[in-house]
Amino acid sequence: MADVEMKPVDKPGDDKPSEEEQKLPPPTPVADIKANVALIERAVSTLEPRFTHRVLRSLTALRHRLDARVLRTAVEEVYTNSDSLSRAALLAWIPAAEQSMDIDSTPAPGAIPTPAKAQPEPLPECEIYFRLLLIHYLLAAPSGPDPAALKLAHETVERMQALNRRSMDPLAAKVWYAVERAYELCGELADARTLFLAAQRTASLRHDDETQASLINRLLRSYLHYSLYDQADKLVSKTSFPASAGNPQFARYHYFLGRIKAVQLNYTAAHTNLQQAIRRAPAPRTAPGFFQAVHKLFVVVELLMGDIPERSLFRHPVLEKALSAYFDIVKAVRAGSLSQFQSTLSAHAAQFEADKTYTLIVRLRQNVIKTGIRRLSLSYSRISLRDICVKLHLDSEEDAEYIVGKAIRDGVIEGRIVHERGWMECAGRKSGYGPEVSDVFARRIAYCLELHNQSVKAMRYPLNAHRKELAAAEGAREREKELAKEIQEGDLDEDGPDLGEGF
């Protein structure tokens, strides 16, 4: 019998990849750009815009890794034809980058040159994508926004409108955002409004929902930047936001609606819109600036509604530092201290002005005074107007009398003002029983009964269901008649079993 050679048994951990294979280096920005170009070409060839959306989702992370060398290398590797007009147009916008080392491209003597294969020209969507990257790169220059970004943005819009390809719609929405950033950083945001209005009209006629949603948000941001709330409200009333827009666009739209409604004293609608903006917004770590801006306005609107925000909101790691000034305002409103409110307002006035919430926070003065009066009415059964003026830091007794009278009329407190004595008499706490309580209880019962009746009326029943029941009952009666007839004729006794057997 021949000897059999035994193979060594592999150890259990030998099939695992090595540390070098586990720690693969991340792809370079040039590799990411080339992969995104391939995805864009795949989206155009297969008519699947989801590949373009995948590219645009990585735009935020990619634009922070761009520099002149990366852009130049990416353009040269994608546009291999040196005679390409698109390549020359893109390279003209890229600043000259210093080469780290000179590479001798002279062929060796005697070497046979290999003919280069003619690569097809990339699609126009790839050119628009490169222009989008260039705009963001010029706007994020270390020395400040480059004025050439505005000229490049205009040229990109003209190029995009001249091509008129529907496969560019997802890219067009991002391009319009870059155009707005270029105008805003150059201090000419008002001049872009006419351009946005014309593009929005064209997008609505073409049913380009993504571009239309982006342009509506661009216009609302332009109006609110210059405090043109009436024009922003007219734009909202005259247009309909596309229902197929993405969550980021919806989040911005609801945030702008919340700002408009808050200025118009419609705090309930503003609170609802801001809640929708928070729910649709990206993760806090992904977009911390937007997350903080929405919560700043959300806290102020809740205070104007008479509610106190939860303390856990101010402990969020993304919001803790940004909402520190608003937390001081919340503490002043909750304590009902007008002096603390005024000192906090003056200390953080610059931040509130930058956040565009100063005018809304000034309205909280009445809420602070109402809270202070409510606390005094619970502590004293009778208090002079002079003491109210001193405790609430009001200017005069006439102001105290007016504020107390308005609080009594609004139902904040229960009491009356005695003008002859110059004091306020507070009504004692009512018991839990009485005609008022019974009336409230009766209204609640009536509401529940009405809700039950409306629910029963709104229920849907299958059509002609009663006919099936009637047919079933008619069949049962026929079977009973046949059974009785068989019993009378004696057929059941002859054919059927003996019921008496076994007894």
UniProtKB/TrEMBL annotation:
Domain of life where this protein originates: Eukaryota
Listed transmembrane segments: none
Residues covered by region (Disordered): 1-30, 474-503
PROSITE patterns (UniProt xref): PCI (PS50250)
GO molecular function: enzyme regulator activity
Basic and acidic residues bias locations: 1-23, 474-488
Pfam family, one: Rpn3_C
Segments forming a coiled coil: none
GO process terms (BP): regulation of protein catabolic process; ubiquitin-dependent protein catabolic process
SMART domains: PAM, PINT
Keyword S-adenosyl-L-methionine among UniProt keywords: no
Domain PCI: 251-431
Record key words, sorted: Proteasome
GO CC annotation: proteasome regulatory particle, lid subcomplex
Compositional bias segments (type: Acidic residues): 489-503
The keyword Membrane appears for this protein: no
UniProt record similarity statement: Belongs to the proteasome subunit S3 family.
Protein name: Probable 26S proteasome regulatory subunit
Originating species: Sparassis crispa
